[in-house]
Write a structure and sequence with these properties.
By secondary structure, the protein is α+β, with helices and mostly antiparallel strands. The chain has helices at 3-34, 337-341, 358-378, 381-395, 397-424, 428-441, 450-469, 493-507, 517-534, 539-567, and strands at 43-47, 86-89, 93-97, 101-111, 119-123, 131-139, 153-154, 160-161, 168-176, 181-190, 195-204, 210-220, 240-245, 249-254, 265-269, 272-276, 280-286, 291-301, 304-318, 323-334. It has two domains: 3-19 and 370-567, no CATH class; 48-222 and 232-353, Beta-galactosidase, Chain A, domain 5, CATH 2.70.98.90. The strands form two sheets. Strands 1, 2, 3, 4, 5, 6, 8, 12, 15, 18 and 19 form an eleven-stranded mixed beta sheet that branches. It has a nine-stranded antiparallel beta sheet with strand order 7-9-10-11-20-17-16-13-14, with no helix packed on it. It is elongated and about 105 Å long. It comes from Aquilutibacter rugosus.
Length: 575
C-alpha cells in the first residue's frame, strides 16, 4: 500500500467515524425524547414489586420504590402531607432536603457558562427537570416504617449554613411511628466535599421487634440537551443510569433502554448506583459490607416518565429497647477524578465514562493519567495537552519514522515505477509482478506506512472523549482567545492552522504513479473537509491535532532530508 492511499484511507475512516458520532448523537436525542412521553394516567409503575405507601407525593410525580418481596404496608397514608424542606448551604453545595429526599442541589463552584452568575443545578423538583435522591424503609410483615414519602421533622427550620472556619455541618431529622419506633436521620455536610454522609439511627421503644428493609434510590426525568452544534461534546456523553457491583463490576443503561430491557435485579455487597450526565453525576454509596440488590423501574406520571435506580438492603430487625445504625453516602457533584478517588470506593472512578467502547475508554484513562501529571508540572491544561501530544508523538516515533521513510522512498521509486508502467502498458498482472520484484530487490516494504496512520484513529477518538468528558478541563483556559478548552475555538484560528498544516503535509506526500485521478482530487480537498469538521470540535482536541500535525510535518521533512542525502551519495544513514 503506498503512502498516499494510506493517508486517503485514514482520512476516510476518520470522516466516517465523526459522521457516525454525529448520527448517533441525533439518534440518542430522538430516543431520549421518545423515552419521556406525556402520560395520561396519573401514576403507573413498571419494574419490581412496589414499596408500600402510597401514590405520588412530592410534586405529585415521585414513583413508588420497588423492593423484592415487600408486601404493601397497611396503615400508611395514601397521600401524606408534603414534608417541609429546609435549605443547606456549604462552600460547594446548596441543597434543599426534607429528611426523606434531597429535592434540589446546586453546584456553587460550577457556573453554567464561563464567568456566569447562574450555577449548574444537578437536582430539581420542577416537573420538567425532576431529579431527586430518596431514601426510606419498608416495614416487613406490615410494620409501620418511613418510606421516601414519609414526613420527617427537622430539628430546626434552618437555614443551615457552613460558617467560615467550620468544617462540618450536621442536619438532623426525626420520624416517629405509632409503634414506638423512631428513625433519626442525619445528613452530614463537609467543607469542600460533594459526598454527604447519611446516617439512620433506628430506636425501638415499643414492645415488639421491628423489622424493615432500607432502600435508597435516584429518580429523574431525562435531561433535555440544547442543540449547540453538530460536534457538541454534551451530545456524546452518556446520559442514564449506572451501577457497580462486586460480582458484575461496572454496567450502565441509557434511559431509552429501561423499557426495552428486563428490570435490573443485581445483587452486590457494597458497590454504588448512580445517574450520569455530561461532567456531573449523583450516586448512592452503601456501606462496603452491606448486602444490597440493585433494581430499576419506570414511572409514568401526568408530567412525563421518571426513571428510577435503587439499591435495597436486607431486612434489619431491632428488638425492643435496642438501636440500629445504618449509613451511606450520597454524591452530588462533578466527575473530578481526584475527589472521586478520595472516596476510596471500588469502581466509583468508572462514573467518568469516557466511552461506550472499552478500548477507547481504556486508552482515554491512560491519556488522562498522563495529562493530569503534566498539568501538575505546567499548571495549565492547554499546555498540558501540548505536552501530552509530544509524549504521544515520542512514543509513536519509531512507527512514524518508518511511515515517512516509506513515503520518502516511494518518491524515489516513482520514476522507476513509471518506467515499468510504460513497459508493460495495460498488462496489470505483469506490471504488478515487476513492481513487487522491484520492491523485493530494493528491500522496500510499501506496507510500512500503514500502521502508524491506523494507530492514530483510536488515539484521536480516545482524545476526543477524554477531553470532552473531563470536567477538569471545563471552562479551563489556554492562552489568549482560547478561554474554554472544551468549547469550540471562537475565532476558528486553530481549525484554520490545522488545514494549513494538513495541506503542507499533503504537499510533501508523494502521489503514487498511476493513482486514479478521482483519488487525487479527493486528496486535494480532504484538508478542507477535515477543517470543516474541526470547526465545531472542542478547542483542546483541535489543539492536540494541530500540535500533532506540526510534529508530524517536522518528522516528515527531517526523514525526507536524510533519505535524499543517502540517495545522493551522502554519508547519512537512514534508520
Amino acid at each position: 500500500m503506498n503512502q498516499t492511499r494510506t493517508f486517503l484511507i485514514f482520512a476516510w475512516l476518520m470522516v466516517a467515524a465523526l459522521l457516525f458520532m454525529n448520527w448517533n448523537s441525533d439518534q440518542r436525542a430522538k430516543q431520549v425524547a421518545a423515552a419521556n412521553p406525556q402520560a395520561t394516567a396519573a401514576t403507573a409503575v413498571k419494574g419490581n414489586s412496589a414499596v408500600p405507601g402510597a401514590a405520588a407525593a412530592n410534586n405529585g410525580a415521585v414513583p413508588t420504590a420497588a423492593v423484592p418481596g415487600a408486601a404493601t404496608t397497611p396503615g400508611m397514608s395514601a397521600a401524606p402531607a408534603a414534608p417541609s424542606s429546609i435549605e443547606v448551604t456549604t462552600d460547594v453545595l446548596k441543597v434543599r432536603l426534607n429528611g426523606a429526599a434531597v429535592t434540589y442541589a446546586q453546584l456553587l463552584q460550577y457556573p453554567i457558562v464561563k464567568d456566569g452568575k447562574d450555577n449548574v443545578v444537578l437536582m430539581s423538583d420542577a416537573p420538567e427537570t425532576y431529579y431527586a435522591a430518596q431514601t426510606g424503609w419498608v416495614g416487613a410483615n406490615g410494620a409501620a416504617a418511613p418510606t421516601h414519602e414519609a414526613t420527617f421533622v427537622p430539628a430546626s427550620a434552618g437555614p443551615y449554613v457552613l460558617a467560615a472556619g467550620q468544617n462540618e455541618l450536621k442536619v438532623p431529622f426525626v420520624w416517629r411511628g405509632e409503634n414506638g419506633v423512631t428513625v433519626t436521620r442525619t445528613y452530614t455536610f463537609k467543607r469542600g466535599q460533594y459526598a454527604v454522609d447519611v446516617q439512620d439511627v433506628v430506636s425501638n421503644a415499643g414492645t415488639t421487634p421491628w423489622s424493615a428493609f432500607n432502600y435508597r434510590q435516584l429518580s429523574r426525568v431525562p435531561m433535555h440537551l440544547a442543540s449547540k452544534g453538530p460536534m457538541h461534546p454534551e451530545s456524546y456523553s452518556f446520559n442514564g443510569a449506572a451501577w457497580y457491583s462486586d460480582a458484575e463490576k461496572y454496567d450502565k443503561r441509557a434511559f431509552d433502554k429501561f423499557a426495552k430491557e428486563d428490570a435490573l435485579n443485581q445483587p452486590s455487597t457494597g458497590g454504588w448506583i448512580g445517574m450520569l450526565q455530561h461532567h456531573f453525576f449523583s450516586a448512592w454509596i452503601p456501606d462496603t459490607k452491606e448486602p444490597v440488590r440493585f433494581n430499576t423501574a419506570t414511572v409514568n406520571t401526568n408530567t412525563g416518565t421518571q426513571y428510577v435506580l435503587r439499591e435495597v438492603g436486607n431486612a434489619h430487625t431491632v428488638a425492643p429497647g435496642q438501636q440500629l445504625v445504618n449509613s451511606a453516602r450520597l454524591w452530588m457533584g462533578p466527575k473530578r477524578i481526584d475527589l472521586i478517588g478520595a472516596q476510596n470506593v471500588q469502581g466509583l472512578d468508572r462514573a467518568v465514562d469516557y466511552s461506550s467502547f472499552s478500548i477507547f475508554a481504556w486508552i482515554a484513562n491512560i491519556l488522562f493519567w498522563v495529562l493530569s501529571h503534566i498539568h501538575d508540572l505546567v499548571g495549565n491544561w492547554g499546555w498540558a495537552i501540548v505536552g501530552l501530544t509530544i509524549v504521544i508523538r515520542a512514543v509513536l516515533y519509531p512507527l512514524t519514522a518508518a511511515q515517512y521513510k516509506s513515503a520518502a522512498k516511494m518518491r524515489q521509486f516513482s520514476p522507476r515505477i513509471k518506467q515499468l508502467q510504460e513497459r508493460y502498458g495495460d498488462d496489470k498482472q505483469k506490471l504488478q509482478m515487476a513492481t513487487m520484484e522491484l520492491y523485493r530487490k530494493e528491500k522496500f516494504n510499501p506496507m510500512a506506512g500503514c500502521l502508524p496512520a491506523f494507530l492514530q484513529i483510536p488515539i484521536f477518538m480516545s482524545m476526543y472523549w477524554m477531553l470532552a468528558e473531563s470536567v477538569e478541563l471545563r471552562h479551563a483556559p489556554w492562552i489568549g482567545w482560547i478561554q474554554d478548552l472544551t468549547a469550540r475555538d471562537p475565532f476558528f484560528i486553530l481549525p484554520i492552522l490545522n488545514v494549513a498544516i494538513m495541506m503542507l503535509t499533503q504537499h510533501f506526500t508523494p502521489i503514487a504513479p498511476g493513482m486514479d485521478p478521482m483519488q487525487v482530487k479527493i486528496m486535494k480537498y480532504m484538508p478542507l473537509a477535515f477543517g470543516l469538521l474541526m470547526l465545531f470540535m472542542p478547542a483542546g482536541l483541535v489543539l492536540y491535532w494541530v500540535v500533532s500535525g506540526l510534529i508530524g510535518l517536522g518528522i516528515m521533512l527531517f526523514i525526507n532530508k536524510r533519505v535524499d542525502a543517502q540517495n545522493t551519495g551522502g554519508n547519512v544513514v537512514v534508520s
